[in-house]
Amino acid sequence: MSSKILVIDDDTAFCVMLKTFLQKKGFDVTNAFNGQEAEEYINKQVFDVVLTDIRLPDSDGLKILKRVKEISLDTQVILMTGYTDIKTAVNSIKTGAFDYVGKPINPDEILHTIGLALTKKSAKENPSVKIKEKKNATSSLSFVKGISSDSLRLHEHIELVAPTNMSVLIIGDSGTGKEYIAQSIHLLSKRAKKPFIAVDCGAIPKDLASSEFFGHIKGSFTGAVNDKTGHFEAANEGTLFLDEVGNLSYEVQVQLLRALQERKIKPVGSNQEIQVDIRVIAATNEDLTEAVKRGDFREDLYHRLNEFSIKAPRLSERKQDIMMFANHFLAQANNDLEKDVEGFDADVTKLFKSYEWPGNLREMKNIIKRSVLLTKSNLIHLEVLPYEMLEASKDEGSLSGYAKADEEQVIRLALEKANFNKSKAAVLLNIDRKTLYNKLKLYNIEL
Question: Of 165, 173, 155, which Cα lies nearest the Cα of 321?
Fold first, then answer.
């Protein structure tokens, strides 16, 4: 049965256009052009999602939100808003709105948002379904597509591969939103209503990998006090996302390859094989072709995962998008911290556009949230930005800006300067610790 959507907007042409677009995507769509007409529909039937403009000729989106929640708590409400109403839209999340999207509306973004809303509704109705709640930085990117050529190419590739069942390898630096890309593919696929299971391959101990991926039965080894469902079974009929897949040990790679080839798994301690139907999306921030040449990564597994590759661009490559992301993270920080910071002064905007952003989107989100917390004015000024960011703009000793041939030497110098404290060295290099660890491995630097 098609999901039911109510679209409310007094712009008749826009309303009809959005209805036509969503109907082509398989939704059952109803239009309302004012608050009174919307309430009549809401009283007659329960919708899965309500899309409403904040400003209506005889009402507003917040009144619609309140009425919808009185009728059906599970109905997800998405507010459509112009720039001047973003603060109202952000505050509406506290009173039950699923989220907001800014005007002018991008069809792909609204489709992605609806997918997220339906996923949340499905999780509420079926608590046994394991859908990962996303609380990290990438979840915040749901409504910012970007207008740069790199962003447009990225979303073109997402839309191209999503309807297929191909395995996808996402390549990109830490913090570039690889998990967001993976979930976007999932939500635009035929598996959208099935589980999306994200696995941090770097966080799985080698001796527990079989249990984590394939599950185990009670008593199969010391500490196995209960039966455990593995990631493969949890993702059955849905998508399994393997983040930082290059961190898997060689032995685990062999097990993973066998499971992907046979589409069968056997929980630890069990004699029964379980058939699984999953789509695999993997991500890495290292060059797996080089890892294959070094013998650290199996070539057959690499080709199994890399049926289609997508590059996640660095934030520094998306200059046109930088302030779009910054304003979005500002609205989020205001909401989280209950503050009313209105924007960035000219010097901060200039620095944001010239800064290399070694931590990419994750770094930007953290810096903006910290700045919102510290600022005492209605604008963010340079003095509330981290010292390291200000220094990086004039510091020749950071890792950004160096050719690959010089990276190893710069890293060694930073380690010496930090008395071989890796956390301090990462700060000096303006990279996160995970990236530093990968660089140490790449250049065989042993401490």
Answer: 155
Task: Please report where in the chains the tokens 């249990």 appear, as a residue.
Answer: 211
Tell me how far CA of residue 235 lies from CA of 13, 100, 147, 165, 199, in angstroms: 41, 29, 33, 14, 11
Token pair 């010496």: residue: 416
What backbone phi and psi angles, to 5 degrees, belong to 322? Answer: -55, -50
CA–CA separation, 411 vs 399, rounded Å?
A: 7
Alpha carbons within 13 angstroms on the beta-carbon side of residue 96 total 18
Report the C-alpha gap between 391 and 395 in whole angstroms. 5
What is the structure's pLDDT at 412? 85
Backbone angles phi, psi at 229, to 5 degrees: -85, 125
Contact 247, 203 (CB under 8 A): no
Q: Is 20 exposed, middle or buried (0-12, 13-18, 19+ CB in 10 A)?
A: exposed
Which residue type sits at 227?
Answer: D
Distance of CA 183 to the CA centre of its chain: 7
Closest CA to 7 of 25, 94, 124, 189: 25
Gap between the Cα atoms of 340 and 210, Å rounded: 49
Low-confidence ranges of the chain (pLDDT < 70): 1, 83-87, 94, 121-144, 222, 224-225, 392-406
Q: What angle do CA 126, 131, 134 make, to 5 degrees?
A: 135
Per-residue pLDDT of 151-205, as tens digits, reads 889 989 999 999 999 999 999 998 899 998 999 999 999 999 899 999 888 878 7
For residue 152, the tally of other CB atoms under 10 A from its CB is: 12
Q: Which SS3 state, helix, strand or coil, does residue 222 take?
A: coil
Nearest-angstrom CA–CA distance, 320 and 303: 34
C-beta of residue 354 within 8 angstroms of C-beta of residue 393: yes
SS3 for 357? Answer: coil
CB-based contacts of 429: which residues, under 8 Å, 6+ apart? Answer: 358, 398, 399, 410, 411, 414, 436
Q: Which two tokens stand for residue 372?
A: 């919102």
Q: Helix (H, G, I), strand (E, B), or coil: what is residue 240?
A: strand
- Residues 359 and 318: their CA atoms lie apart, in Å, by 14
Report pLDDT digits (tens) over 208-249.
888 888 888 887 776 766 778 888 989 999 999 999 999 898
CA 129 – CA 58 distance, rounded (Å): 40
Decide if 382 contacts 351 (C-beta within 8 A).
yes
Residue indicated by tokens 């503050």: 339
Q: Using CA atoms, how far apart are residues 273 and 85, in angstroms rounded to an integer? A: 55
Rounded to whole angstroms, the Cα distance separating 49 from 68 reads 10
